[in-house]
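During the no-cost extension, the postdoctoral fellow (Dr. R.K.) reprocessed legacy sequence entries with the updated structure-token encoder. One reprocessed record is reproduced below for audit purposes.
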Amino acid sequence: ETGVAAQTNLGIWYNYKINAKFSGKWSYNGNYQLRSLDNIDFDNEQTMLANGFLYTASPNLSFGAGHRYLKFEGVFLEHGMYQTAAIKSSLNKLKITNRFTMEERWINSNFQMRYRVGIDLGVPLSEKVELVFSEEVFLINKNSSFEQNRIILKANYKISKTLKLTTGIMHWQFSNLKRWATLLTLTHLMDIKKNRVD
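Re-encoded structure tokens follow.
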């Protein structure tokens, strides 16, 4: 995922996310992502598709699992399962989310375990706008365990009850490479249970 073939240090990531609730505690999460590693050359890109299910044990605790598929044309193909847990808390207006994710990755024909530890700090600016700072560290099962670090500053805008738009900037650092990317995400929130006809 280093993007060593990129021509510049600035890319753009497009995301489309679906969160479809189909029971009181269960929901489906889907994510389609197009990563252009060079804002000028869109031939240099990665595509990522993730599908999984989320179980909300309580308002502050959730668990998820699923499968992710990542393709970087001519460089590598990655796929594998993931498991995740998130804990939410708050301090006055500050919303805090701690996340831990474990990934079983097949990169071409090589197997690798990866562990992701992240935190989100969100501050609502209005009923529709929220400013979020997040950081996530990626560790792998090798001698040098550090793989990458992502620091993101983004703004969430609630378009409606079912649509949310997110824009931001990400600093993407590896042990021997630093990159920047602008982010644009559309999140679609659905409640299948409410719309179901018995």
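Residues 192-195 form the longest helix (4 residues). Residues 61 and 87 are 5 Å apart (CA to CA). The remaining legacy entries will be reprocessed before the final report is submitted.
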